Amino acid sequence: MIKKEMIAMLLAGGQGSRLGILTSKVAKPAVAFGGKYRIIDFPLSNCINSGVDTVGVLTQYQPLRLNTHIGIGIPWDLDRNIGGVTVLPPYEKIESTEWYTGTANAILQNIEYMDTYNPEYVLILSGDHIYKMDYEAMLDFHKANGAEVTIAVMPVPWEEASRFGIMITDEEKKIVDFEEKPAKPRSNLASMGIYIFNWKTLREALLANADQPHLDFGKHVIPYCKKEDQPLYAYEFNGYWKDVGTLNSYWEANMELIDIVPEFNLYEEYWKIYTKSDALPPQYFSEDSEVERSIIGEGTEIYGKVYNSVIGCNVIVGAGTVVRDSIIMNDTKIGCGGELNKVIIAENVTVGDHVKMGIGEEKDNETDPHIYNHGLCTIGEKSVIPNDVTIGKNVCIGGVTTQEDYPDLYLPSGRTMIKAGE
User: The pTM is what?
Assistant: First the structure.
């Protein structure tokens, strides 16, 4: 039997509904980030940098782009005969076909995969956070304390603690209690959704709770381990960690990459972030172009002016167009003479000439004010924006639109326009 000390199970099935139209056709971990990466590249790179060479990726929602991106794991050096990366979608069983209904249910349905490696330890990860973390250091902490379960935690501001699962620990960092989104927190150590379990402990907890609907780590597995009086420890992480679960946090995390001294550095030699890269020509900047404080992907051609923005690969920014504080994803074409302020444009979008976006006063979005806010203008993938239109703030557009869709060639702030077929 193959024996691995620690294997990783990476939960990448999330829809990411708070990212709105960005995740209408793609799972959240496959959303582009930082010009050339996808969100899932960060936990996958952490695995290989930490010496974890066996990773099961659990997919569910819109998995095609994710599966294509991961392939057989070559960019992360995870194409191995024994171990490597394996994509684990829900599959048809003889008795019934079951979607993954909760984080721990997804792991439960893949017990056979984990049994194949009979590991000492299982590392559970989420596929939608941006961070660099050495899981080997966390494993050393787990072993040193004789823990059955170690939960990575991060100190958060006290006023935000009620948004998280909070761990209460003693001086040795042993977990004495935990509370899910407490109204009056007794600690500010928030769970990061990263766990190391002794495999025997995890297996037993999953099987004992198998009949729970929506089997979840925070609600069922961790409380079960606590009830069984197993030693639970909190591993404190103090590095950069960002949950890019909302459009604004996603925009902020991209903008932080272009700070003069970025808090999160993509260029560190000793902790590389790996991704699947296509063979593209270098960037091209015309003599009239201007670029300041921006990331520009390979194969991109800039004829206009780009300030404080993150531009993906194979993008064209037309002459006379000014782009500010924006994220433009791969394979998007932007026409001439436009003005783009604080926009997020998904992949394969065509924007016509003389288009102005992010213009005017802010107004609450009419359909999803909890998603489209902070003055952002968000365009879904494969959308088409016609020539000569002006678009406001807190706007969402999806689909192939024509000038007829814009009365007086104008879409005011706060509007949502999703064309049929989206």
Answer: 0.88
